[in-house]
């Protein structure tokens, strides 16, 4: 226990980060650091884990347990994280004619065998890495998020496809391509509650040229078609196509989405936030999430003037496009179709 009443915010932050870095070691079993910062009117609980052991979905389980305790609700049954991870890393026998392997081949051919890279110039040369910057925006308000989810379904889309479309359209309007290749990290399709790192990779071509509502339908179909490709893991993909793959960046351009409202209900007065580690980067990565206050995005990108300009422009356009989609799906059907 530390009496930090006379510390400024930076000194307290530095101490928490120092202890986190010391405890969260991938070479140490279950590396984690739990602490609480107690103030006269609030308490901040910090749950830090090395990413080798915990993924974003796991954080929702941990947050749910903490909020259940605070709300005096009984803890829900837990599954074995070790069993889930063991099943996940078991290498599947993927024959050469497996259609999922053919799906990966088609995806990579469309990208000229380039591992997904953010398609706009971020001012980082080949082989360079820059300190990481972070930008955050609220894309959809708490009131509009349910309207978007229900409305986009009536038009043949899904919440995720609408978000992907908004980003794809924004990138295209900012000078990017009509089709944007990316990777979508995805957790297991299960309601079992466990803590571990079980993440698959969905290869996705996001259509970004045309009417956003129609594109949301197209991208919903593409997500559905691409999701089974993640089942085989990356090992068979690299074993089969590794000699043809090209990589210009160390980091991979990815778009992640987690709907926290499906996993827990915060207790009154509890606000949950996910933070990521800080490291040098040469690419942009988008982390989208939904909680009780709406749908938000955190973009990690290299610290250059060019990247700052591009990411700000794309984020502003993304907010505009998703706002257009919300307006369209909440208006009478005849008017919405008339604008398509």
Question: Strands, helices and their partners?
Answer:
Blueprint: H1 9-23, E1 32-38, E2 43-49, H2 56-70, H3 81-89, H4 99-110, E3 132-141, H5 144-154, H6 159-173, E4 179-186, E5 200-207, H7 212-226, H8 235-241, E6 254-259, E7 285-291, E8 294-302, H9 305-330, H10 333-339
Parallel strand pairs: 6-7
Antiparallel strand pairs: 1-2, 3-8, 4-5, 7-8
Share of helix, binned: 25-40%
Structural class: alpha+beta
Number of helices: 10
Mean pLDDT score: 90
Shape: globular
Instruction: Output the helix-strand order.
Output: HEEHHHEHHEEHHEEEHH
What's the arrangement of strands in the largest beta sheet?
Answer: 3-8-7-6
Which strand-content bin applies to the residues? 15-25%
Stretches with pLDDT under 50, minimum 5 residues: none
Number of strands: 8
Distance between the termini: 60 Å
Using only C-alpha atoms, the radius of gyration works out to 21 Å
Largest sheet, in brief, is: 4 strands, mixed
Report on the structure:
The structure is a single chain. By secondary structure, this protein is α+β, with helices and mostly antiparallel strands. It has helices spanning 9-23, 56-70, 81-89, 99-110, 144-154, 159-173, 212-226, 235-241, 305-330, 333-339; strands at 32-38, 43-49, 132-141, 179-186, 200-207, 254-259, 285-291, 294-302. The strands form three sheets. Strands 3-8-7-6 form a four-stranded mixed beta sheet. It has a two-stranded antiparallel ribbon with strand order 1-2. A hairpin with a 4-residue loop joins strand 1 and strand 2 (43-49). The longest helix is centred in the last third of the chain and has 26 residues, at 305-330. The relative contact order is 0.18. The mean pLDDT is 90.
């Amino acid at each position: 226990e530390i009496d930090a009443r006379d510390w400024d915010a930076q000194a307290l932050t530095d101490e928490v980060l120092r202890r986190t870095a010391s405890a969260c070691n991938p070479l140490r079993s279950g590396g984690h650091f739990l602490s609480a910062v107690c103030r006269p009117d609030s308490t901040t609980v910090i749950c830090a884990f090395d990413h080798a052991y915990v993924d974003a979905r796991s954080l929702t389980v941990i947050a749910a347990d903490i909020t259940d305790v605070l709300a005096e609700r009984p803890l829900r049954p837990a599954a074995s994280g070790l069993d889930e991870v063991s099943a996940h890393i078991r290498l599947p026998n993927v024959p050469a004619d497996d259609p999922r392997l053919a799906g990966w081949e088609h995806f990579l051919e469309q990208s000229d065998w380039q591992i997904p890279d953010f398609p706009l110039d971020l001012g980082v040369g080949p082989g360079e890495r820059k300190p990481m910057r972070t930008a955050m925006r609220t894309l959809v308000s708490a009131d509009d998020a349910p309207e978007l989810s229900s409305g986009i379904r009536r038009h043949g889309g899904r919440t995720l496809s609408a978000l992907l479309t908004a980003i794809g359209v924004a990138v295209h309007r900012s000078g990017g391509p009509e089709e944007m290749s990316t990777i979508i990290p995805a957790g297991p399709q299960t309601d079992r509650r466990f803590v571990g790192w079980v993440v698959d990779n969905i290869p996705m071509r996001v259509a970004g040229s045309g009417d956003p509502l129609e594109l949301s339908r197209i991208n919903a179909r593409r997500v559905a078609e691409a999701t089974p490709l993640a089942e085989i893991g990356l090992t068979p993909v690299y074993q089969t196509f590794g000699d043809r793959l090209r990589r210009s960046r160390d980091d991979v351009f990815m778009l992640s989405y987690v709907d926290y409202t499906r996993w827990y209900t915060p207790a009154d007065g509890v606000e949950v936030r996910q933070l990521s580690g800080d490291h040098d980067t040469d690419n942009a990565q988008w982390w989208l999430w939904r909680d009780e206050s709406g749908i938000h995005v955190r973009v990690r990108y290299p610290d250059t003037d060019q990247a700052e300009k591009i990411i700000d422009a794309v984020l502003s356009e993304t907010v505009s496009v998703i706002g257009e989609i919300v307006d369209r799906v909440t208006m009478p059907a005849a008017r919405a179709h008339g604008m398509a």
